[in-house]
Amino acid sequence: MKTTDERKRAILESFKGGLIVSCQVQHDDPIYTDDIVVKMAEAAKWAGAVGIRANSPDQIKAIKDKVDLPMIGLYKIWHDDTDVFITPTIESAKQVWEAGAEIIALDCTSQITHEGTQAWDLIKELKKEIPEAIIFADVSTYEEARRAIDNGADIVAPTLYGYTKETQHIEEPDMREFAKMCRDFKDEAYVMMEGHIYTPEDAMKCIFLGAHSVVVGSAITRPHLTAKRFVDLLGGYQDNWRDAEKAKH
Question: Which of 141, 177, 202, 212 is the most exposed place for a label (fewest CB within 10 A)?
């Protein structure tokens, strides 16, 4: 059952049919400057985006101070012993919330975290600790989406499709599986598309298949990766640009 909380529903319904822009930068990215994420977010709002997705408390707060759009916040923390890096602990989720994000995104896959728990178990703990937060479940499969919803996620999206061991061989979004998510879960949660969307036409396909909204990052806000895709293709796929996209920071 979708949330009945009026404040949460107002935010979630404001996303309907729209574009959410992921405005993220790492310190070792060639485009990094202190205010780059704010400029990304300002450009997204100017273009008509309905929301922003951002990483780390500092960048979330910097954007929220300048751009009045709903925020999907996350905190990427990498460890060598796990592939779970998107808001992997309750402490990181609290920092995202305190920075001003209305929505907290976290890894909700079946993978084992640095702390030795299954990633999707954090949802229940988060709902107890911060019941006011809207929970955005980043998953990689239909089955993980099902579990995330059962655990109480408000939003599910195949953000991690291609980033888990089970799906790492995949480069393009699985539109058939995504359509199945939209069909089966539409009355229980807000199903959004995030991951591997590079053109407006592909984003529109997702809306047609039933997506509540679409999140796009690299194709809009990470020009070094866009350039890398071109170089990779022109070079005959000798240097896989996805290695750069998946790099730990």
Answer: 177
Q: Judge contact between 55 and 72, C-beta under 8 A.
A: no
Number of domains the chain contains: 1
- Using CA atoms, how far residue 5 sits from 11, 53, 213, 216, in Å, is 10, 22, 20, 27
Which residues is 86 bridged to in the sheet? Answer: 76
SS3 content of the chain, % helix, strand, coil (to 5): 40, 15, 45
Tell me, yes or no, whether 16 lies in a domain: yes
Angle at 25 between CA 65 and CA 221, to 5 degrees: 90
**pLDDT band at 1, cuts 50/70/90?**
confident
Give per-residue pLDDT as tens, 9-31: 999 999 999 999 999 999 999 99
Instruction: Say if residues 163 and 246 touch (Cβ distance below 8 Å).
Output: yes
List the structure tokens of 117. 């728990």
Residue 90 is assigned to a structural domain of this protein: yes
CA distance 136 to 86: 11
Instruction: Give 111-133 pLDDT, tens digit per residue.
Output: 999 999 999 999 999 999 999 99
Integer Rg of the chain from CA: 17
Cβ distance 64 to 54 under 8 Å? no
Does 36 fall in a domain? yes
Is residue 188 situated within a structural domain? yes
Tokens of 181: 């998510």
Q: What CATH number is given to the structural domain containing 81?
A: 3.20.20.70
